[in-house]
Specification:
By secondary structure, the protein is α/β, with parallel strands linked by helices. It has 8 helices and 7 strands; from the N terminus they run E-H-E-H-E-H-E-H-H-E-E-H-H-H-E. It has helices spanning about 25-35, 60-80, 100-110, 135-150, 160, 190-200, 205, 210-225; strands spanning about 15-20, 40-50, 85-90, 115-120, 170-175, 185, 235-240. It comes from Actinomycetospora chlora.
């Protein structure tokens, strides 16, 4: 029997699955604000709490995890998101394990998204920061969770037997941070200020940054140019995959 498919009409449910708090706001903040403004349901899944982040050595790693959850919750509210799943995996030590795939498949079955957005599973040799090993592991584990895990009722059978979570097929996956490999762009010009505000909510990570608005404007402009958008437009790029 085929897994149950989501209703194709009406607003979409969009699940964004990334490694760290703030990853969404840097890479997808303008898109999120645009999607929620259009009436779509957006849900976050943060695989780690970002406990290895920050610059204050006086802050314990346990406290940092709490701080970063609070910052991500506040940033999500700025962009219209109030559904967040924190999985609590260790920051800086992600690898594509069967257990991580199970945890991601669980969230997919709980949320039942039409679209999953995640990070690239492929290292970009021209982007050191974009190819953080946690990012590539998160992208690869998410792709494994989309197919075959979440849609196969015989994968991770405990999800159905013990938790009542039926199989679910995701119709499409959007890979962010693709640079020249992007084939779809979201015009985020009108969401620029909210994206910057969401990033400022991550005080432990961005308070030290000089000209954060300028950085985000420059990155958005480069994406808009690649998209062929007009002058003074901003964008975020994706590689869109049909995963039906």
């Amino acid at each position: 029997m085929e897994p149950e498919q989501p209703d194709a009409t009406g607003p979409l449910t969009i699940l964004i699955m990334v490694a760290h708090p703030d990853d969404i706001d840097f890479g997808n903040g303008g898109s999120v604000a645009t999607w929620t403004g259009e009436g779509h349901r957006v849900v976050y899944c943060l695989i780690t709490d970002g406990d290895a982040g920050g610059y204050d050595e006086e802050v314990s790693r346990t406290d940092m995890a709490t701080i970063r959850r609070e910052e991500q919750t506040a940033a999500g509210a700025i962009l219209g998101v109030d559904e967040l799943h924190f999985l609590g995996w260790p920051d800086g030590r992600l690898s594509v394990t069967h257990e991580l795939r199970r945890d991601l498949a669980r969230v997919i079955r709980q949320v039942r998204p039409d679209r999953v957005v995640t990070q690239s599973p492929t290292r970009n040799l021209r982007s050191m920061y974009g190819s953080h090993p946690d990012h590539t592991a998160a992208g690869e584990a998410t792709m494994c969770a989309v197919y075959p895990d979440a849609r196969n009722p015989f994968a991770h059978p405990e999800l159905l037997a013990d938790e009542g979570l039926a199989a679910h097929s995701v119709s499409e996956v959007w890979i962010s941070h693709m640079g020249e490999g992007a084939d779809h762009y979201v015009d985020t010009t009108d969401a620029y200020e909210r994206k910057v505000d969401a990033l400022r909510a991550h005080k432990s990570q961005t308070a030290h940054m000089e000209d954060l608005p300028g950085r985000m404007w420059a990155w958005g402009r480069s994406q808009a140019k690649a998209a062929g958008f007009g002058p003074d437009r901003l964008a975020e790029g994706y590689l869109v995959l049909d995963t039906r």
